[in-house]
Amino acid sequence: MRLNRFNPNSIRVEDQRGGRFPGGGGGKVGCGTIIIAIIAALVFGVDPAQMIGALDGGQQPGITQSGQAGRSTEESCAVNQYSQESCAVLASLNETWQPEFEKAGIRFGQPKLVFYGGRGRSGCGAAQSAMGPFYCPADQGIYIDTSFYDTMAQRMGAGGDFARYYVMAHEYGHHIQYLTGIAGQVRSAQQQNPRGANQLQVRMELQADCYAGVWAGKNRHLIEAGDMEEGLRAAASIGDDTLQRNAGQRVRPESFTHGSSAQRMEALKIGMQSGDDTRCDAYFDMR
């Protein structure tokens, strides 16, 4: 996918790389809906219960335009190829989704992109590499240790630039859910019906996949040959059933939190082919 040049001053970026953080962190680990929480559990051996916190609102701190190590946004985005891609994708996502919110009469606010290395801090508690990229609603931040992309390519067979863009776009999908209020409604429903919490979470993740596809569909003039295949391959590689099989476990649909490979591929495909965010409503209509 050919990403356009972007203005670093138009995006919110925080850089925690190089910062020192106490071991173990504190508070809730991995608050919000973490796209790769189950990956960390199966690939890295991390307990997903330590990662998936409450998806509720919180105070929104002020915009941070420079990093922990004193880097400017432009410098943070230029640290490596993955950083540059992430910043470019964030800019494209903002440019794509803000007009949609304005047309719908819903207040829009940009999320911030937070780079960290190894470990860091989020508004939801500790951030650790094994958690994979995640969205924290408390500070509306998308948290990424870019070394994850090497792991995704080498251990999971999900390489390629569009596979990486899909991860960012999925996390942005959770920001959309936060802004529209669907995230809060889902959390309330999960608290009222704990037995159905996993099913509700699966629908949440599939809708975020659909939103990721919509972003690509709305920018199909930038799509290159092979992009859709890369995206679908990435979606397949992080399906709960595939992850459980690869970990030598029995496939247990009742334990799914993100959806099967087939479901994730279908959600992404619906968004990409339609470019219509209303098609994603089918995954979660809380009215």
UniProtKB/TrEMBL annotation:
<feature type="transmembrane region" description="Helical">
    <location>
        <begin position="21"/>
        <end position="46"/>
    </location>
</feature>
<dbReference type="Pfam" id="PF04228">
    <property type="entry name" value="Zn_peptidase"/>
</dbReference>
<protein>
    <submittedName>
        <fullName>Zinc metalloprotease</fullName>
    </submittedName>
</protein>
<keyword id="KW-0472">Membrane</keyword>
<dbReference type="GO" id="GO:0008237">
    <property type="term" value="F:metallopeptidase activity"/>
</dbReference>
<dbReference type="InterPro" id="IPR007343">
    <property type="entry name" value="Uncharacterised_pept_Zn_put"/>
</dbReference>
<keyword id="KW-0812">Transmembrane</keyword>
<dbReference type="GO" id="GO:0006508">
    <property type="term" value="P:proteolysis"/>
</dbReference>
<dbReference type="GO" id="GO:0016020">
    <property type="term" value="C:membrane"/>
</dbReference>
<keyword id="KW-0645">Protease</keyword>
<keyword id="KW-0482">Metalloprotease</keyword>
<keyword id="KW-1133">Transmembrane helix</keyword>
<keyword id="KW-0378">Hydrolase</keyword>
